[in-house]
Design a protein that fits this description.
Elements lengths: L1 H19 L18 E5 L2 E10 L4 E10 L3 E10 L11 E5 L3 E3 L5 E2 L6 E5 L8 E8 L3 E11 L12
Parallel strand pairs: 2-10
Antiparallel strand pairs: 1-2, 2-3, 3-7, 3-8, 4-6, 4-9, 5-8, 9-10
C-alpha cells in the first residue's frame, strides 16, 4: 500500500514540476515591450513615449511623441541630428515649432503632433528608414536624448500628418 501511495505521489509531482517550470521572473510576459515603432525614455518625472520622426524624401518631417509627467513641467526645446546611412552624423535638424515652450500638466498626456504643440524638423540628411539623435529639454527634468527612427510619411498610418 505504501508503495502504491509513493507511486501515485511521484506521478503527481511530475506534472506539477512541468507546470511550474514556466514560472519565474524571466517569463516573456513580464518583460517590457513597446508595441510601437518609436522609442521610449524617461527623465525625472517626465515619461517620453513612442518618439519618432515622420518625414518625406525631401528632408522635411515632424516629431511625433507622447509626453506625460507626474508633476508640472515645461518642454522648452528640441534639437537633433539625423544619421546618414553610413552611421555618421548629418546636418543638424532645423526645428520650427508652434506651442513651445509647452506647459505639461501633471498626469496629463501631451501628444506632440496635436495642436497646439507641433514640432517640424528639416535637414537635407533626414531620410525615412534611417535614425536621428533627438534631444528634448524640459525645464525641471532636464534633457533626454534618444535615437529615434525616421519613418516615411507615405505610410498609411501617417498620411493624416502633414510634414514640414
Amino acid at each position: 500500500m505504501a508503495s502504491t501511495l509513493r507511486r501515485i505521489g511521484v506521478s503527481l509531482c511530475v506534472p506539477l514540476a512541468l507546470a511550474l517550470t514556466g514560472c519565474g521572473m524571466n517569463a516573456q510576459t513580464l518583460q517590457p515591450y513597446t508595441p510601437a515603432e518609436g522609442v521610449n525614455s524617461s527623465v525625472g518625472s517626465v515619461m517620453v513615449r513612442n518618439v519618432l520622426i515622420i518625414a518625406d524624401n525631401t528632408g522635411r518631417g515632424v516629431l511625433s511623441a507622447s509626453v506625460a509627467t507626474y508633476s508640472n513641467d515645461t518642454l522648452t526645446g528640441v534639437t537633433g541630428t539625423p544619421q546618414k546611412s553610413d552611421g555618421s552624423l548629418g546636418s543638424p535638424l532645423v526645428v520650427t515649432s508652434t506651442g513651445l515652450p509647452a506647459t505639461l500638466a501633471a498626469n496629463t498626456l501631451t501628444v506632440l503632433t496635436d495642436a497646439p504643440v507641433r514640432i517640424a524638423v528639416t535637414s537635407p540628411d533626414l531620410k525615412p528608414g534611417l535614425l536621428a539623435d533627438v534631444t528634448l529639454t524640459f525645464a525641471k527634468a532636464g534633457p533626454v536624448t534618444l535615437v529615434a527612427p525616421v519613418l516615411s510619411s507615405d505610410e498609411p498610418e501617417f498620411q493624416h500628418i502633414t510634414v514640414g
